[in-house]
Amino acid sequence: MARADAILEAVKQIHETPLTPDGWARALASIAGALGSERGILLVQNASRKPEYAVSFEMTSEQTVGFAGVAANGSDLWETIRALPVGSVAPTSALLPDREYARTRFYNEGVKPLGAFYGLVVSPLSTPEWFIHLSTGRLLGRQDYDAEDVAVMRMLVPHLLTALHVAHRLAAADLRTAAAGNALDQLEAGLILVDAATKILFANRTAAAILARNDGLGVDRDGVCAGDHHATRVLRRLIASCVGVAIVNGWPGGRIEVPRTDGRHALRIAVAPFRAEEAQIGTPWLGAARPVAILIITDLEREQRVRKEDFRYRFGLTKAEADVALEILKGDGRDAAGARLGITSATVRAHLSHIFEKTGVRRQAELVRLLLEGERRLTSTAGQPRRSVGDPSRPSHD
């Protein structure tokens, strides 16, 4: 997989972490892949430094516990890592020379048992209550992380922060209050709660508008349905997996892209189990219903439109140039981009020349990184309530 593709996959997996039980495991694997790493760990410590949560990539449970234990008991290098500014990315070689690093307890008890040496660390979030650490490692004998690797991790940090905030909001949501329903109505994403029979128990304002248009997603006598029979079957299988009726790919829930009748971009739907306690069932807006699954709906058409307008505003691109930039972001080259847009490769090349001039980059890989990095402003508000109106070098080709 090309690096640009790996970065895109990592961003996608990061944003889906709050919605699936194995979300952080998948995201960590994708992050490690984007960074050319064989090991990885996400560790959450509470105020007393006790590990509250840990997920790892290509590490045994014993290795994960060992790493978390070194962090809990404190060590020379771990204190340096905790003192780094939140969001800053650092190779371990930038914190200590290799010879000194090889003598630390952090390395000998936490890293050496993994068969790794060089590491890349970041703390995406630190509060008085929580300290969150993420690091990836390369096996002993491999080269150190370079400036491009550091840039990739920095690019992923705002996406990590957004996913952590969304996960926190979902975990902290008190569904016993009518105010929760009002807050959900303000989300840009569509949100639907369904019971075991796929009957809709609650749909926020965005989801209700999608259902009312019956464009890709609707309701029939059996409950929520997609625009075609195959997509409906898949969607209902994913919902059924959330109540233990069936298991899809080994995990409850999953993702599906539902086509629309008019050929516009599909609706992306993430399905995840919804676990409500008895005390949470009797709400004014859910009645006595028992929701078993939550559906998060992303309108890819709107997402594409917002991205395009953002590109045009930030870089002064024309509509055609923004279209090309969006296609190049998919990472499969000029020919594929031109085919999707219905233009020749020569026209794509000409647009790219203008885009390079306006953005100041020289290569397509640099353009992809720039566009992804620039999405911080968009992703940092993902899932936030709507605001009222008024809140708003020489080019070359490769």
TrEMBL record:
Stretch list, region Disordered: 379-398
Domain HTH luxR-type: 314-371
Cited Gene3D superfamilies: Winged helix-like DNA-binding domain superfamily/Winged helix DNA-binding domain
InterPro entries in UniProt: Sig_transdc_resp-reg_C-effctor, Tscrpt_reg_LuxR_C, WH-like_DNA-bd_sf
Pfam annotation, one family: GerE
Protein's name in the database: Helix-turn-helix transcriptional regulator
